Amino acid sequence: MPPRSQPTARQARLGTELRRLRDAAGLTAREVAVFLGSTSAQMSQMEAGIAGVSEERLRRLAAHYACADQALVDALVTMATDRTRGWWKEYADVLPPVFRDLAELEHHARFMQVIATAHVPGLLQTEDYARAVLAYRVPELPEGEMEARLAHRMRRKAVLSQKGAAPYDAVVHESVLRTRVADRRVARAQLDELLRESERPNVSVRVIPFDVDGFAGASSMMLYVGGQVTALDTVQRDAPYGSAFLDASAQLLAMRTLVRKVESVSLEPAKSRDFMHHLAKEL
Fold this sequence. Notes:
Layout: H1 9-24, H2 29-36, H3 40-47, H4 55-64, H5 70-81, H6 97-107, E1 111-116, H7 127-135, H8 143-156, E2 168-173, H9 174-178, H10 184-197, E3 203-208, E4 222-226, E5 234-239, E6 242-246, H11 249-264, H12 269-282
Parallel strand pairs: 1-2, 2-3
Antiparallel strand pairs: 1-4, 4-5, 5-6
């Protein structure tokens, strides 16, 4: 397979998992290259996601690595043979790669869990709310990129309503609901949108009120995305200059624990809806 000039996060993750399996087997890239009749350089490209890997070669490698986790191997084969040409590829020459990677991650999600303590989660934002958030960026975005980012964010929302949509559970702090990123009209419309989206069978929104005890997780913002198997889960967190994707097993365990801690101090979905209805009367 010809080398890729810019692998997606999903392609790079496949390479990372292959390297982890090789490391667990105690083999060097050179030793595996000899086994495959390949070269160390080609192994490096494959494990970096720059070069693809066929199903036949992937299963040979898994057997050579003595990987007994058949569900993981099957999931890696799915990643390796995926030929999805998603709508996000239309933005490849317009927006930074992280936008494409996030949309692709959401598309393949088995489930999504989000903690929001600053802004309404992207998939639940109205267009006016999203525009206000994007317009606050320093330095300001050029008009063309601003509109592209806004259109991209709005198209991402379709993942919640598509056939067989994955479960989406959001925990939102009261400060997010009360903060007016624009004006009262936008805030009220955004709250109405949250209530509408929470009526979907696959979507739940839980609120953490200001007066709850035991919440010290103001910096807990994250998106936890379930992979085809738990080992392929991914966490997306915003960083000062972009987004970071975490997938090390220790990181994933820590983030799962954090999600549970945050959920434990939030209101149940039904009570959260009552809370938002009450707040809507104040706006």
